[in-house]
Structure formats: C-alpha cells, structure tokens
Amino acid sequence: MDHELTEDEQRTLEAAAFRRLVSHLQQRTDVQNIDMMNLVGFCRNCLSNWYLEAAKERDIDLSKEASRERVYGMPYAEWKAKHQSEATAEQREAFKTSHPHSH
C-alpha cells in the first residue's frame, strides 16, 4: 500500500529528483541543448530559468548567471566553450519544426 506523503516528504523527494536531474545533465555534456529542445521541449537554459523564476517568486535574490551555474555546474560561458557545438543545419531545421513560434 502506498504511503500518503506529507508536504515535507513530497518537497524532499522533488528536491532529490531535481538534484539528480541536474547532476545527470551536468554529466551528459554530449547532449546539446538544441537536441533537448527538439526532443522534449526544454533544455538546461529552460531549467535554469525555472529555477530563477522560483527564486523570484520567493523573494530570493539570485542572478541569472547564478541560476545557470547551478544547473550547468560551472559558469555558463565556460560550459559553452567546453561543450557546446555549433548547431547543424538539421538541428536548426528540426527546431523550426518543433518550435514554429520561437523564431
């Protein structure tokens, strides 16, 4: 029989799942953001923006750079230099198809 979660238990489990997702994305530097956007409709930048929005909703002073560093595990510029490749024509075309209102 399933245990009825308390609010604190649910929040604890959600936080643990979020930390695991972030850790997984930090380790999978081979997966490009554009591929994530094309396949699942969000990427590391989206996740860092959601993190920043949650901070602002709670009046927590956090910069965009700090929220990105939390998700990327390093400053965003450093991650881009180390791991981001130029999008291929196929990736850009797939993005246009999967996100027709984004450009």
From TrEMBL:
<feature type="region of interest" description="Disordered">
    <location>
        <begin position="82"/>
        <end position="103"/>
    </location>
</feature>
<protein>
    <submittedName>
        <fullName>Alkaline phosphatase</fullName>
    </submittedName>
</protein>
<feature type="compositionally biased region" description="Basic and acidic residues">
    <location>
        <begin position="82"/>
        <end position="96"/>
    </location>
</feature>
<dbReference type="InterPro" id="IPR036810">
    <property type="entry name" value="SMc04008-like_sf"/>
</dbReference>
<feature type="domain" description="SMc04008-like">
    <location>
        <begin position="31"/>
        <end position="96"/>
    </location>
</feature>
<dbReference type="Pfam" id="PF06844">
    <property type="entry name" value="DUF1244"/>
</dbReference>
<dbReference type="InterPro" id="IPR023163">
    <property type="entry name" value="SMc04008-like_domain"/>
</dbReference>
